[in-house]
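Supplementary Methods S3. Input chains for the assembly prediction are listed below.
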Amino acid sequence: MSYYKNRTLVFKNSYIAEGYTVAGPKENDGRYKGCFDLSLSDDMFGEKTFEKAERRMFEHAINGAIAKANLTIDHIDAVFGGDLLNQIVSCAFAMRNVHSGFFGLYNACATFVESLILGAGMLNNGLENVLCVSGSHFSTAERQYRYPLELGVLRSPVTQWTATGVGCSVLTSRPQSECPKILKATVGRVVDYEIMDTNNMGAAMAPAAVDTFETFLHDTKSKASDYDIVITGDLGKLGGDIFMDLLGRKGIDISGRYLDCGASLYFDSQQTYQGGSGAACSALVFNSEILNNLNRGKYKKAVLIGTGALMSPTTSFQGESIPAIAHLVQIDRR
Amino acid sequence: MSYYKNRTLVFKNSYIAEGYTVAGPKENDGRYKGCFDLSLSDDMFGEKTFEKAERRMFEHAINGAIAKANLTIDHIDAVFGGDLLNQIVSCAFAMRNVHSGFFGLYNACATFVESLILGAGMLNNGLENVLCVSGSHFSTAERQYRYPLELGVLRSPVTQWTATGVGCSVLTSRPQSECPKILKATVGRVVDYEIMDTNNMGAAMAPAAVDTFETFLHDTKSKASDYDIVITGDLGKLGGDIFMDLLGRKGIDISGRYLDCGASLYFDSQQTYQGGSGAACSALVFNSEILNNLNRGKYKKAVLIGTGALMSPTTSFQGESIPAIAHLVQIDRR
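Predicted structure tokens for the full assembly:
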């Protein structure tokens, strides 16, 4: 991995061997119906609590990804992953059944792309196979971040819907066959435009996505039109519009080549308002639809920008604004 | 960075240029009095809440470490860090004032060593300077994990005291002078010996530390006596005894060369029972006492094992045991 400027890295041998997804019922009723490896009919996944269900989704996605890549757990050197629950317990507890090394990560909904960057980086240092995994669950996130579900609180029109699911990628330094390559990355920095409305995370995250994408284009001396698709994680419809608008003011045009995982996840009829969000969002859409399109050659050069809002209920209660971060990876299919 | 077995890595050019510490009042009344770069007389650090104080300690430690290493923020490519607060908000919010890339990490009290491993790994890939930072605050941890301080709940004799402070290391691939080198690392895996008492985290973490240290000795074909000092993060007195006992049963003797940051942080008269714990523990002691001894040449080969208990209040309420993890780095001073 060589080194551009401060924040943009180039990887030598980081390939995406496989992706595996476990999706909740509402997610599989959305625009990507049938694209997921496992779709749950019950978001309890046969468990007693939503938290245990979220953990079981992690366990299933990890095992599914390993099997789909025709590997066993003994082939996996390390797992890079996290989730939205306090102390990232869904991923950490799932790791009790996995004897690989574990790097616990947290960059909110940017965690999946963070895991791709660190996984690709450590792969370039002798590791052979690593897993990058991230996920979330609507019902665990709601009661942790917002209100008890039983309260039936009316949702603001600017809200998004925390996606239920887990996505897991298998990265390898020695691909068995031709597969997409993580070529470059731009590490996100924390930006805070002093958005105070915790319902409006898209508005808080859009400037971070702009900062990272602009830095990436600058550092790589490339332009938006060099990429078949520019994907953001979970800016949602409103956040995506702000993202395109802010880029437009900088003379960067991504119209016709832009997709937000969150905004595209559900149909309007599913009443999620601004679309999906959560650590599952980019992990689900990337490891299904996007990876399929890369493998089919529909996308030859893709940019994936994971977006995260870094606040907590405590910081909001203490009157803080919402800092955000966006990590970027460029994925090529030759 | 070459590759031993699954979990042990070797780094080429990862040096520790400097370490900086901010310690709370109780910590500076302990065994390392006067060793810290900044000691607070008030653990509110002039802020309105304990959480804001913890964040300010991060901001101060980050700026202090950069200055102490005779660098500016423009020299720092990325920051690897985390803390114990939900959504690691102390570190993330401190990053609002730092324009470097940010990798948010969470492995509980093993986060500091996790940051050293990932920082050293990414340094071996072209980055020049990175920061590794971790910390905690007694008063924010107590009210998040246990009870409101005002309740004055009696503490169990097996408890430890969450250390207040932040420690930050500056890692560089191009040292200006001779300095300690992060030579090897063994990545921790999650182990769970089904300890149910959340007061007794030392007992939960000791088996993880044994697993990692034993793996390290095996992978590097070395023995405990090859190292001047074996340091654990925050096993505490009881956990440290369990660690030495379990190692003894495997024929590994570390007597006379073992130090636990937590167990050594306070005097008995300070009534912390088993000693210190928290993400600050290893970060404080390593970046003061240990780094001084490495720089003075008192330690030529040191092993630092960060230990973390990965439960959350939610998992405990749902009847789960305490999974634990331990990450290891070998630091040499030639």
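The mean pLDDT of chain B is 96. Residues 50-68 of chain B form the longest helix (19 residues).
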